[in-house]
Amino acid sequence: MFLHLGQDTIITTEEIVGIFDLDTSTVMKSTRDFLTTMSKAKKVINVSYELPKSFVLTYDKKTKEKTMYISPISSVTLLKRIENVNYIKE
Question: How many CB atoms lie within 10 A of CB 14?
Answer without folding.
Answer: 11
